[in-house]
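Researcher: We're teaching a course module on how sequence relates to structure. For the next exercise, students receive a sequence and then see the predicted structure as tokens, so they can try to spot secondary structure elements on their own. Here is the exercise chain.
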Amino acid sequence: MDVQAYLRRINYRGEVAPTAATLRELHRTHLLAVPFENLDIHLGRPILLDQKSLFDKIVTRRRGGFCYELNGLFALLLRDLGFDVTLLGAGVARADGSFGPDFDHLTLLVNGPSAEPAALDLQSEVWLADVGFGDSFREPLRFVEAIEQEQDSRAYRLDRDGAHFTLMQRDGAGWEPQYRFTLQPHVQAEYADMCHYHQTSPESSFTRKRVCTLATPAGRITLSDLALIVTAHGERTEQILPDDSAFQTALYEHFGVDLALG
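Model: And here is the predicted structure for the students to work with:
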């Protein structure tokens, strides 16, 4: 993989040694540069999870993607830089209190070089990293149970129930679960069936509407079908775009996405 091209894509100019400081800055810059989006699903374009396809889409064509793409390629970057990365399968929290199936979401466990996932000491400097969950934590979370980790106006916590860990988020509505996972390591191919499901099933939220969203230094900007939503310093504004031409223009102006490039 062309690591330098990837680093340019995310506007990263810092050190590349596999340290906690490097991981934090890579994570933050990635979220500020690469949008979470499902546009290919609504264009009828298949989403492929091999390294060549992911690099071409996210780096060369300057697109975004969803968890299997964003975290999948980010894991490859981290490994090339010397981090130890484990792919984890997660079930996303539902409104009724249940969780989605395994592989509903791909998230990452990250340590320094040469760590063995099965022998990780979870009280040491191990991190939960996730650049593919939309509006979530901007810097990786220390993988320590039951401590509150504040970021901006939110806090996060990892709760444990046997083999399962649940990522909890606190904002104005109080503590709510985000997703649940175990430490079972996986490989990218194991996510293929759920990736296909989210591209094709009418039950998947990804097939119901177009979404493109990106963190900004002041908040977040989102296109949700024809709604352009901007949050800055806690203030939210929403504008309904008149047509698809305006949608395409907004994609390019706010996210750098040109669908004509593929």
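Model: If you want an answer key for the exercise: Confidence is low (pLDDT under 50) at residues 114-123. Residues 41 and 128 are 28 Å apart (CA to CA).
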